[in-house]
Amino acid sequence: MSGPAYELHELRKVFADGTVAVDEISLTVGAGEQIAVIGPSGAGKTTLFRLLNLTLRPTSGWLRIAGVDVGGLSDQALRGQRQRIGTIYQQQNLVGRLRVVHNVLAGNLGRWSPGRALASLWRPREAAAAWRALAQVGIPEKLYARTDELSGGQQQRVALARVLIQDPAIILADEPVSSVDPSLAITIVTLLRDVAHESRKTLLMNLHSVDLALRYFPRIVGVRDGRIHFDLSREQVTEELLRGLYAGHRDDELQLERPPGGLDPFGRACRPLPGFDK
Amino acid sequence: MAEPVAHFPASTSKSAFPYLLGAGFLVVLAGSLCTAQVDPRRLLEGDALANAARFLRGAFPPDLSSEFLGHMMRPAIETIQISVVGTLFAVLIGLPLGLLATSSLAWSGVLHERRAAMGRWVLGFVPYAVARGLLSVFRSVPEYVWAFMFVRAVGLGAFPGVLAIGVAYGGILGKVYSEILEGVNPRPLETLHAGGASRLGVVLYGLIPQALPSLVSYTLYRWECAIRASAILGLVGAGGLGQQIELSMRFFKFDEVVTLLGMLFCLVGAVDFVSGRLRARLTR
Asked: What is the CATH number of domain A1-84+169-269?
């Protein structure tokens, strides 16, 4: 396979209720590139990622992954493509009742036969690999813990470990740090960036925090109302562009106002909720 | 700027539905009382009282002779066996059909949005509809009638009882399983699917683990029902205590009937107890 990781041509997604979530987005993502996608809530970022990970079918336009047009692929071929794309979601989409080891090893489901998948639930296969992945995200001691006994931040690390096990060519992270504390947010973003860099994976990350995006990603894509508002290198992103991107979205605009002294490197994440700022 | 709201807004729901539902219920209740010939006076008429008295006179003291009790151990154990194997059959029928009959797994929703139309409708919707139809046939025929037919087919004994419970409860379990499975949080399923898991992978690592407590709990409840049902099924010749109750009734041995009912009471209580303990342990 060759060609850019993603080529999008006038990709459009209209939901059954008539909402236009993604409106003719065209974008090319080179293999191994690291891109942050920013924009106000409801801009269509999550829908864009669900199109990119082959969950949703675009209403029109086309999408190529590593040169392959996925529009006409069979169910089996689509499964093969999905295996090459690892997604980390905003909410921890883990099964709380399963032990951590199984949630991590679920990253193997694209490769495992049904018999192997079933046997592993009884007696974990490749538990050593799961342990190594957990060690990489800093919680190896949780290997056999029940997932719902973990904190939100620990669960997000488990989701990360699953993607490490999956070892995809492309990592899509949909607001992976919006529900974790600021220092863990930096840990997770840098870990993903380093993993992607080391094994030449393509990384796309939706971020609520403009600061994190500008700090850790060389290319920034601003999305607003389902369209690309700008697609620039970090140096070219100006305060005006950001104001335009978030204009009219009060909650999101707030994070652009930095407190005096610039002591807010994590954007919204460390801003106290109204009423808690005594 | 919007006008400041002086009063909190009243509920805008003006639906007549609750009233219609209430009125409809009253009409159905009145009609049912008439046509079901509910007439408490008939309980106190001469014949009814005399018959009841004859039964009670014959019933006491109950037959607690060790000989009778010894003879009844086998049917009692048989009743438990029928309920256990019958419930097992019901799970073997209900689980696969229930999975096929789960729309979010078979054909509708986000797991299928990118599926080719052929696969989605021919391999998804058609088996779904067939499974739903089968389940509905299985459960709309009462287990009593199933037992009657199976006794005709394979003869008297425990086996027709097992088959009857298996088929009738398989229909019920399949329906309830599919409803439980459709109610689980879909996000972990989408995640597994997006990572390249097959449909079976999604079932094993997302669907079943999430639904397990409810599945186990409802299956155990059905087992409790099955022990009661297996007694009834005996009345049409499908083995167990019920068959003995029927025999004793036919020979007007009401003292034996009361003993048998007592045994059934103990069995049902024991099964309820065991199932309650299992449920508490397995659904953590």
From this structure: 3.40.50.300
